[in-house]
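Complex 364.
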Amino acid sequence: MSSVVEEFGGWLTDFLPGDYYENYRTYRWDLALRRDYQRAAYEAGWLQPTWPREHGGRLLGLRDAMEVRLEAALRSAPKLPNIAGPNVAAPGIRWFGTAEQVDRLLVPLLRGDEWWALGMSEPEAGSDFAGLRTRAERDGDVFRVTGHKIWTTQAHQSYWCTLYVRTDPEAPKHRGISCLILDLHSPGVRIEPIRMASISDETFCEVFLDDVEVPATNLLGPLHGGWNVAMSSLHHERQMIWIMNWVEIQRGLEAARGARDPDVYAELGSLLADAEALRATGYRALNNELAGRPSPEADISKLLGSVTLQRVWELAAAARGPGSAEDPDLLFERQDALAATIYGGTSEIQRNIIAERLLGLPKG
Ligand SMILES: Cc1cc2nc3c(=O)[nH]c(=O)nc-3n(C[C@H](O)[C@H](O)[C@H](O)COP(=O)(O)OP(=O)(O)OC[C@H]3O[C@@H](n4cnc5c(N)ncnc54)[C@H](O)[C@@H]3O)c2cc1C
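Predicted structure with flavin-adenine dinucleotide bound:
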């Protein structure tokens, strides 16, 4: 174990309550603890390990940062209460924000004082993000925005939203999009939470926008350059998502291990192999990145990680037998895993990308 992972491990042990693992089933939903964890991780430089100290990091290299994230996941460190903030909005603000935007927005975001929502999907534009219809027209010092977003996680609890809007309807689809920083308390914004089937506290919302004024100074990145802002912001999370999937897969494998049924046993073997393939793919991506080579593995590990995660929790349920439906934790894991093949790019879209861009197959 590297010294930096040891240092992180010691810090985590000091942070966690003494009965954390014993009472993990309760602590995993403890919002106050999760908020404290984010603030403490920011202050200690573990939140964004590759970033400088003032932005929640300690300038670690990519390899150390990955090992720290892996250790955090392996030890079931508290889940960040508003993942879209540090993992998606923050990289976008850092790379594309003006000095004023960085000064005003980044620290409250990283400390978890101001939550962020991600306003990409619309009822007619999910996988086809570039087809979004929410319109923004420049009117003096403001943009006037009208449209409708959906699946906007935690919008009802958030202060800000990175809102993707169409600013040039004449341009080819992905060249006419801009990213605006929307204050969700602005007049004309109506937020409606969507009732969830799962017990997750990451509630989906619909966001209705009726002639909302957004100051022109809240444009993030270049005008009509929102496609790049979106892709760069998501890149950060996509590179790390396999770690979360891999650790959850290990927990699912553990839950399925007692199986006696030969069919369950055979599937367990196949899943063990897929979990190893996922880990190897994650490390290959890291090596490519360190060597400055293109790294197409994120598309493979997104697909492999999410599909394996679903299979593993279904197997854990099969291994448990009829009693599995009575276990709320197992039910939650199965429901949670269902979402993994949808967010951040559905499996069908990932397969299209792999087929066309990686394997060079003709477009279907
Ligand atoms: C847990 C979770 C959190 C989310 N959080 C957010 C958020 O905070 N902000 C946000 O903006 N969005 C969020 N989303 C929405 C997510 O980005 C979309 O659900 C996703 O992009 C898919 O879009 P859609 O639901 O409109 O499905 P659609 O795009 O309508 O797809 C429906 C089905 O058709 C398939 N399909 C579509 N196009 C093709 C094609 N070309 N080839 C083959 N098959 C195709 C899809 O794979 C899918 O099975 C979240 C989703 C989940 C599950």
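The mean pLDDT is 94.
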